[in-house]
Amino acid sequence: MTGTETVLAIEDLTVDLPLSGGGRFRALDRVNLQVRRGEILGLVGESGSGKSMLSLAVLGLTGIAGERITGRIALLGEDVLGLSPSAWRRLRGSAVGMVFQDPMTGLNPVRSIGSLLVESVRRHQRLDRATSKTVALDALRSVGIPSPEARMKAYPHQLSGGLRQRVMIALALINRPSVIIADEPTTALDATIQAQILDLLRARLADRAGGILITHDLGVAAEVCQRLAVIYQGTIVEQGQTAEVLAWPYHPYTQGLLDAAPRFDRPRGRLVPIPGQPPQPGDRREGCPFRSRCAHADEACAALPVLAEVAPDHLARCWHPLRAATSPFEDAV
Amino acid sequence: MNRLKAIGRILGRRLGELLILLFAITTLLFFLLRLSGDPAAVLAGEQAAPEQVAAIRALYGLDAPLPVQYFRHLRNVLFLDFGQSLHAGRPAIDMVTERLGSTLMLGLFALTLTAVLAIPIGAWLGARPDARSRRVGNAAIFILQGLPGYIVGLLLIELLAVQFRLLPSIGNRGALSWVLPTLTLASFLVPKLARVVAANVTEAMREDFIRTARANGATTAEAVLRHALPNALLGATALISTQFAFLLSGAVITEWIFAWPGFGQLLIQSLQRLDFPVVQAAVFVTAGLVFAVNAGTDVLFRLIDPRLRNQRA
């Protein structure tokens, strides 16, 4: 049911943050991403790769003094970076909804579930209190929360982690946004609950919205996302259809992530960690960001590779891709 | 319903604790005052003849054995009878309750003014942890907090009562008399409370749930007022209740400066005159009130924070 309408387009998004010792740290470097309606894009990377920074940038909630954000973030075709703060604020919760990682700390402990939902409904829709309550009840029902009437009066501490994450999802979806960003929505949950929450996200997003699922877990991405973008040190290093990227990775970093993850479809072997450490903010960074940890690196890698199409709808940013690129024009010749 | 049940449970438990506390205070005071000397000798004065002392002893029942006196005292206290004031010759408890009203009212005014001023100031400062306005505000609070209450009181008298003759500065004569003492007490309390509220709001603003609220389109004002402040009020409530206890017993200096016919003044005067029944009545009533305020705070905590509601008091 993937539509063709692009609900979120990120073009050349670059975020520079000031470092305490002076100088700047490039948290995101010319990132390009598109999310179409009904599609979930997986954004995969390790801690500090800039994946959470990206979600906060789309929401306009980076909130770091002295930051510099350039590029274009188009929500339903409208460039939010050019909007006034209050116009951008009105899109938060209505055009774009966010599900955060930790449902234990993400809900206000002194506010009832119902009051949080109703507050959000009344902020974005001109509804009276009674109607808003009905909308809130429907939202709780739609995320599979049993006896929603009772839950409306409950406080976050009275709910389990899984229920709280469902409440967070209800809160993100309640004003029917076109874009949902879920930042590690299942990391803080038990494995059995994880699957439920992922099913729920997939079902709710297929309806009408496009989504970005941020995760470090390739298994989660494989299960939920149609397309995948692998991010390393603020740079997209590989992007394409999920199945294809995971089956035929071109970038050594993607291959490294696959080797480091446990698999059940192969004879048990040793997990291979990626050698070395990601660079620290403030390290001199030129060329390919992965070259200090890459077995294939040579002099060519001192220059940043372009994100080139290595196969139809499959991009990789590497001078030495793991397999030969198939030219999109090959068949036509 | 849940709330009411929880509150009833707390109050019931607290009432039991109060009775134990009052018994302990009464006992302690009785023996402490006996230890400090023979009341009859003090009453009769230094030049008194032994017969006069004996007469006084008989008059106040001080000739009975100590345990008998103690149990007699306990029974009297049960009926709030602390005996006659040695100085005024009137029931001690009456003298205390007469004064209590004006002190309680003064404290209530001061606390209300403090809350009305300090909570918005604190929330405003707390929401701007990095801005220059915050640094200026913090410096102002720091200076104000360093000023002793009596200096502020004397400055206010000099300015508003002596220089401009706008307000009365002595005693309790009409509504205007309340202004200067209230301001003096508040000037001491506002910086304290504002600082606590500011610190708590700043802390709450860093919480994940503020980010959730903002991701749902909350304005900064909404995030502060509807999400951070309710969390910050817990600390503020704790401070207000301890300050109320201070106002009951410790507003002595302010009452002294403004010749305020209050509780603190009575306590100091009675101590100077060795008027034991009044001191006993005053301490008894203070203990009861401080306890009542603490119990009330417990109830407030549970109204503010649902997490505490189902815990045992």
Which class of secondary structure composition applies to the elements of chain A?
alpha/beta
The termini of chain B sit apart by 17 Å
CATH architecture of the domain at 92-309 in chain B: Orthogonal Bundle
Shape of chain A: globular
| Beta-strand residue fraction of chain B | under 5%
Main sheet of chain B?
A: none
CATH level-3 fold name of the domain at 92-309 in chain B: MetI-like fold
Mean pLDDT of chain A: 87
The CATH class name of the largest domain in chain A reads: Alpha Beta
Unreliable segments of chain B (pLDDT under 50, ≥5 consecutive)?
none
Q: What oligomeric state do the depicted chains represent?
A: heterodimer
What characterizes the major β-sheet of chain A?
A: 8 strands, mixed
Low-confidence stretches of chain A: 328-333
Give me a quick take on this structure.
The complex is a heterodimer of chains A (333) and B (313). Chain A has ten helices and twelve strands. Chain A has helices at residues 51-59, 85-91, 113-124, 129-142, 148-153, 161-173, 191-208, 218-224, 242-247, 252-260; strands at 6-18, 24-36, 40-44, 68-75, 78-79, 96-99, 179-183, 210-215, 227-232, 235-241, 308-311, 314-316.
List keywords for this structure.
heterodimer; A: 333 residues; alpha/beta; Rossmann fold; 2 domains; eight-stranded mixed sheet; four-stranded antiparallel sheet; 30% helix; disordered C terminus; B: 313 residues; mainly alpha; MetI-like fold; 14 helices
